[in-house]
């Protein structure tokens, strides 16, 4: 009998998450939201998922907490001039312990390992495992991860990338990354009625550019509601907080249900990356809510948006973005929802990963 989602094979999946933040609502960022959704979708398809994640993550996801704690170091080691920071050591120790455990008896408990962390050790230590390892590339190339790939003449890891843009960015080191775009649960992000304000959501950090969203909304004469965790307190205090008021309001870090209501009740979503966005989960979430997107043409945004559901301005140009807002708010909300359902649904993503797991374990 087929499991929900259409798969007929139940697999035992070790899903490795980032150790930096718990995988639970309200999510610290897109990586945590993605990992939570993937774990849930795979479980709903009948797979047995064990999530290795930071302490405090959602226990309903088959959680096994990563041992994120500082190793006990001697005074001599702590005094060494090359001693890295405490957070770096804790994360390194956690992944080292996990990979050693999986190397020792992982094949007894799992059919496949899917690494969604940003750490180099799951890639560097993959040859020690006697089962397939999949690593998803969520970011532009990093020196530690490129080094881990190149440490082996024939790296045994199967790589996926969250967008064609990200796959191209990694091509020099990982020439055959398969594109599996991130998906959102369109049931948890329902189509909303729209409204008069604009919305901006995400981590309030310089690379997401919320200050430019405020500038563009103000130039367009539209109110703007912002929501998300403050990831860089100094940036928020110096560049965002002084712009609040006069139609721009920060609502805090909302859980998914409250955020979906906010996004679904907006006329359009502003997406203002100041870096080459590897995917842009907030774009998919907005489209699922039927909310058109007006953003900067950076990274993968151009892969997700079509003229029917969004508008793109030159990167960093708040004035050009403001000029496109009147067009964006007039776009068909049903077309936005249909784009999410067809192009970036959670079910489609889970299906592609399941097919990959089955191929590797055949």
From TrEMBL:
Does Repressor appear among the keywords? no
Q: Which domain of life is it from?
A: Bacteria
User: Glycosyl transferase family domain: which residues?
Assistant: 199-337
Which UniProt keyword terms apply here? Answer: Glycosyltransferase, Transferase
Q: Name one GO molecular function term.
A: glycosyltransferase activity
Q: Which InterPro entries match?
A: Glyco_trans_1 (IPR001296), Glyco_trans_4-like_N (IPR028098)
Does the record bear Zinc in its keywords?
no
List, for all copies, the residue spans of the domain called Glycosyltransferase subfamily 4-like N-terminal: 29-186
Name of protein? D-inositol 3-phosphate glycosyltransferase
């Amino acid at each position: 009998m087929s499991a929900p989602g259409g798969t007929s094979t139940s697999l035992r999946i070790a899903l490795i998450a980032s150790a930096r933040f718990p995988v639970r609502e309200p999510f610290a960022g897109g990586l945590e939201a993605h990992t939570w959704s993937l774990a849930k979708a795979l479980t709903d398809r009948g797979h047995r998922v064990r999530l290795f994640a930071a302490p405090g993550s959602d226990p309903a996801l088959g959680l096994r907490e990563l041992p994120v704690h500082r190793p006990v170091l001697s005074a001599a080691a702590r005094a060494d001039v090359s001693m890295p920071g405490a957070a770096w050591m804790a994360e390194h120790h956690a992944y080292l312990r996990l990979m050693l455990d999986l190397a020792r008896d992982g094949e007894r408990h799992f059919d496949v390992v899917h690494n969604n962390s940003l750490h180099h050790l799951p890639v560097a230590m993959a040859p020690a495992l006697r089962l397939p390892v999949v690593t998803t590339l969520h970011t532009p190339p990093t020196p530690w991860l490129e080094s881990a790939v190149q440490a082996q003449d024939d790296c045994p890891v199967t790589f996926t990338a969250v967008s064609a843009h990200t796959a191209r960015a990694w091509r020099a080191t990982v020439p055959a990354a398969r594109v599996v775009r991130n998906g959102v649960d369109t049931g948890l992000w329902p189509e909303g009625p729209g409204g008069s304000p604009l919305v901006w959501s995400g981590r309030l950090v310089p690379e997401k550019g919320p200050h430019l969203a405020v500038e563009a909304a103000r130039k367009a004469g539209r109110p703007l509601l912002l929501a998300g965790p403050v990831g860089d307190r100094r940036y928020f205090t110096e560049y965002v907080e002084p712009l609040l008021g006069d139609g721009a309001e920060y609502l805090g870090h909302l859980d998914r249900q409250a955020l979906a209501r906010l996004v679904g009740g907006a006329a359009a979503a502003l997406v203002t990356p100041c870096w080459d966005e590897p995917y842009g989960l907030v774009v998919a979430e907005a489209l699922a809510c039927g909310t058109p997107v007006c953003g900067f043409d950076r990274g993968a945004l151009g892969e997700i948006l079509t003229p029917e559901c969004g508008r793109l301005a030159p990167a960093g140009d708040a004035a050009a973005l403001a000029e496109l807002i009147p067009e964006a708010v007039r776009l068909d909300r049903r077309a936005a929802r249909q784009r999410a359902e067809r192009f970036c649904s959670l079910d489609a993503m889970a299906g592609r990963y399941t097919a990959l797991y089955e191929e590797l374990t055949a």
